[in-house]
Each structure stands twice: as structure tokens, then as C-alpha cells.
UniProtKB/TrEMBL annotation:
<comment type="similarity">
    <text>Belongs to the class-I aminoacyl-tRNA synthetase family. TyrS type 1 subfamily.</text>
</comment>
<dbReference type="InterPro" id="IPR002307">
    <property type="entry name" value="Tyr-tRNA-ligase"/>
</dbReference>
<dbReference type="GO" id="GO:0006437">
    <property type="term" value="P:tyrosyl-tRNA aminoacylation"/>
</dbReference>
<dbReference type="GO" id="GO:0005524">
    <property type="term" value="F:ATP binding"/>
</dbReference>
<dbReference type="InterPro" id="IPR002305">
    <property type="entry name" value="aa-tRNA-synth_Ic"/>
</dbReference>
<dbReference type="InterPro" id="IPR036986">
    <property type="entry name" value="S4_RNA-bd_sf"/>
</dbReference>
<dbReference type="GO" id="GO:0005829">
    <property type="term" value="C:cytosol"/>
</dbReference>
<keyword id="KW-0963">Cytoplasm</keyword>
<comment type="subunit">
    <text>Homodimer.</text>
</comment>
<feature type="domain" description="Tyrosine--tRNA ligase SYY-like C-terminal">
    <location>
        <begin position="344"/>
        <end position="427"/>
    </location>
</feature>
<feature type="binding site">
    <location>
        <position position="236"/>
    </location>
    <ligand>
        <name>ATP</name>
    </ligand>
</feature>
<dbReference type="InterPro" id="IPR024088">
    <property type="entry name" value="Tyr-tRNA-ligase_bac-type"/>
</dbReference>
<dbReference type="InterPro" id="IPR024107">
    <property type="entry name" value="Tyr-tRNA-ligase_bac_1"/>
</dbReference>
<feature type="binding site">
    <location>
        <position position="173"/>
    </location>
    <ligand>
        <name>L-tyrosine</name>
    </ligand>
</feature>
<keyword id="KW-0648">Protein biosynthesis</keyword>
<dbReference type="GO" id="GO:0003723">
    <property type="term" value="F:RNA binding"/>
</dbReference>
<keyword id="KW-0547">Nucleotide-binding</keyword>
Length: 430
């Protein structure tokens, strides 16, 4: 047995843990679970800490359970939220569950014959036939309202500052989550629940139900909620969540998110979001501190996370795409970009539309630069720039006699204009 608590402690992934947990885990193989909200058909990087906890748990020789909260997802966890969530129907939940399992399989071993192979469970399966009367009789009577009201997540929602208050549905959330723990304790011999620090109240309600109903002993462990040094929310970009699904967040954008991490955050994140050893991280951190301008930590962090979530090929393409703006890339590099990556790379770059008929007929470059796009202010300015050899089409220098035609299209849809080193303009063919 590897010491799981020791591992997550040096990685900065331990916020709170119930006394006796470390000793309990060192005795023999144990079973633990983390709950995952199935409100979308993809995880985002906010989920990654819980997934990494499960992976470290499995690497330490224990058995991880990933619980997709089909039932709890229908209610809505009040922890840290100000509003109730939208309720999902069963077909949507099942679709989301399958998509999430596919992503988790990149991290956890679900398929081997090992005793500690991971399992995916859905609390909807054991809650859907549990009648309301049975639930309040068999579960509700064991936990007092006073106990439930004392939880921070409930207190915050009932405070005078909370405009919305709290529905009975959300108030019962901790009982439903607590019952999950009891069910998994009975059915899977699960003795540990892990989650974010805002889940401590819900998790300990579960340990209490195990004690009161099953006369058993269960344990709780939480990790810190991940923050950014500048105070902005971790896992969010201007476009919203950073998703693990490449159709929602391209590997290029995913790579860029980690690459743009601050020095302070990179030192913290490389321990949490990679499986690099303590020695490797210490050496890397030391080198980074000696030459922070080289961004060694950020580059390694971006590389490790991109390969882990996507693939080595996606990493290579993300690096190539990054070099298009900042390196000596070629027209061929540009033409290898798929549409989503192309648009991500040139997000925010001015654009203009030209009809396909005009492109097929051929347009003189001076007209393209001025009249058709407004990239340059006049024909005179366009000619001067061309004479000075500072205009490129798709990364290749052009002269005044160049004619833009359909053979120049990237993905049969785009043309990239460039004036000097840093001024870009995208032509979209419609």
C-alpha cells in the first residue's frame, strides 16, 4: 500500500480529513467515492481535482468509485450556490453519464480484472424506486433538523443576505447525499467519501448515517477549492468553462489556458494536475525560479494536462497552432489547422466577409487589402506595404501582382492576411 494521505498532502490536495483515515487506509485495500454532477455531457477542469483524487487513490492500491449524481443532479446541491439548478430528465442524465464515463476512462482503470478496478455508479439507480414515505421513515428520522440547520451550506442560504432563501428540495440534499454513502457502505463496502471543501457538511451527514443506521465507521476527506492568485475563478475563460470535451473546448484552447497560468498558480497546479514525482517538480520549480521568463513550469503543466486529457498528437497540434501567432510557422502549418482551432487561434482578430464568387473569379491583392476588407486604409497604403514586402497571405509574402483565388483558402473557407509581424486579419468566404 502506498500512503495516499501522504501523497495528497504534499501535493496540496488535502483540506480536511477525519481522524483515523490514514490508519484506516494503510490497513488494507479500501473503497472510496467522489460524486460528480451530470448536468452536462462533459466534465470541465473544475472536476479534475476530484478525478485526480480518485486516480491517486487507485495508484495507492485502493478501489475508486465515481458516482454520477443522477438523483442529486435532479435536486441541486445548495453548497456555494445562490440559485436552484435546472432539473434534468432521465434520458439526458443517461446520455451525460455515458459521456462522462468515457472521459473518466482516460484516468481510471475500469476494465482490468484487478481487485481495485474503478466502477461508475449512479445514485438514480437506487433512489428512483425509493418512495418519499419510505425515505422519511427509514432515513429522515435518524437526522435531526437541528443537525441539518447547523451545516454551513444551509446557514448561508438561510442567512438574511440570501435573497432567494432555500427550498425544501434543496434542504433535503444532504440527506440524499448522506444516503448515497450509506448505500455504498452497505453494497460496495465503501468507507470513504472525498470531495471539495464545500462538501464537508454533506459528507459528514453520510458518515453520521453510517454510524446511526448501520452501526459502522465511515470517513471523510476534502480537498481545497482551487483558486487563482489574481482572484478570478479557476477553470473559466472569457468564453466560459474549460471543458475536457474537445468539441466544447479545443485542445489548443485547453493548452493555452494552462500555458497562461501565473507563476504562483503554476507552482501549485503542477502538483495537483500532473502525476510528476515530488523530485521532478522540485527540480522544475527551482529551474523556473532561476529563469521565470522561460515559463518552464507553465509549459510542462500545459504539456502534461493536454496529453492526459486529450493526446500527444493533440498536444503537438496545439503547440504548432501556438507557434502560428508567435513563431516561424509556414503556410503548410496554417493549412493543417481544423476550423475550430483556426478560429480559436485568431479569436478577436478583425474579420471581413468576401463572397465565394469573387474569390473564384480572383481578386487583386490591393483590392483585398483595402476595398474588400478595410484591413488597410487606402490603396496607396496597400501598395506601399506590398512594396516594402510586409504583406503576407497565409504566412507567405506576396507582391502587388498577387491575385487571391480559391486555391488560397484554408479549410475552403478562410484567408489569413498579415501586415508586418503582429497585425492579422481574417477573411471569411461566404
Amino acid at each position: 500500500m502506498k500512503n495516499f494521505i501522504e501523497e495528497v498532502t504534499w501535493r496540496g490536495m488535502l483540506h480536511d480529513v477525519m481522524p483515523g483515515t490514514e490508519e484506516h487506509l494503510m490497513e488494507q485495500m479500501r473503497v472510496a467515492y467522489v460524486g460528480i454532477d451530470p448536468t452536462a455531457d462533459s466534465l470541465h477542469i473544475g472536476h479534475l481535482v476530484g478525478v485526480m483524487l480518485l486516480k491517486h487513490f487507485q495508484l495507492a492500491g485502493h478501489k475508486p468509485l465515481a458516482l454520477v449524481g443522477g438523483a442529486t443532479g435532479m435536486i441541486g446541491d445548495p453548497s456555494g450556490k445562490s440559485n436552484e439548478r435546472n432539473l434534468l430528465d432521465e434520458p439526458t442524465l443517461r446520455h451525460n453519464q455515458e459521456a462522462i464515463k468515457g472521459q473518466l476512462a482516460r484516468f481510471l482503470d475500469f476494465t482490468s480484472n484487478a481487485a481495485n478496478a474503478a466502477e461508475l455508479v449512479n445514485n438514480y439507480d437506487w433512489m428512483k424506486n425509493f418512495s418519499f414515505l419510505d425515505f422519511i421513515r427509514d432515513v429522515g428520522k435518524h437526522i435531526t433538523v437541528n443537525y441539518m440547520m447547523a451545516k454551513d451550506s444551509v446557514k448561508k442560504r438561510l442567512s438574511s443576505e440570501a435573497a432567494e432563501g432555500m427550498s425544501f428540495t434543496e434542504f433535503t440534499y444532504q440527506l440524499v447525499q448522506g444516503y448515497d454513502f450509506l448505500h455504498l457502505y452497505r453494497e460496495k463496502n465503501c468507507t470513504l467519501q472525498m470531495g471539495g471543501s464545500d462538501q464537508w457538511g454533506n459528507i459528514t451527514t453520510g458518515t453520521e448515517l453510517v454510524r446511526r443506521i448501520a452501526s459502522g465507521k465511515a470517513y471523510a476527506l476534502t480537498c481545497p477549492l482551487i483558486t487563482k492568485a489574481d482572484g478570478t475563478k479557476f477553470g473559466k475563460s472569457e468564453g466560459g468553462n474549460i471543458w475536457l470535451d474537445s468539441a466544447r473546448t479545443s485542445p489548443y484552447k485547453f493548452y493555452q489556458y494552462w500555458l497562461n497560468t501565473s507563476d504562483v498558480d503554476a507552482e501549485k497546479y503542477i502538483k495537483i494536475f500532473t502525476f510528476l514525482s515530488k523530485e521532478e517538480i522540485e527540480i522544475l520549480t527551482e529551474k523556473h525560479r532561476e529563469a521565470p521568463h522561460l515559463r518552464l513550469l507553465q509549459k510542462r503543466l500545459a504539456e502534461e494536462t493536454t496529453v492526459m486529457v486529450h493526446s500527444a498528437e493533440d498536444l503537438e497540434n496545439a503547440i504548432k497552432a501556438s507557434n502560428i501567432l508567435f513563431g516561424n510557422s509556414t503556410s503548410d502549418d496554417l493549412k493543417q489547422l481544423d476550423e475550430a482551432t483556426f478560429l480559436d487561434v485568431f479569436d478577436g482578430v478583425p474579420q471581413a466577409e468576401i463572397s465565394r464568387n469573387e474569390i473564384e473569379a480572383g481578386i487583386n491583392i490591393v483590392d483585398v487589402l483595402n476595398e474588400k476588407t478595410g484591413f488597410l486604409k487606402s490603396n496607396g497604403e496597400a501598395r506601399r506595404a506590398l512594396t516594402a514586402n510586409s504583406i503576407s497571405v497565409n504566412k507567405e509574402k506576396v507582391t502587388e501582382d498577387f491575385v487571391l483565388s480559391s486555391k488560397d483558402l484554408i479549410n475552403n473557407q478562410f484567408v489569413l492576411l498579415q501586415s508586418g509581424k503582429k497585425n492579422y486579419f481574417v477573411v471569411r468566404v461566404v
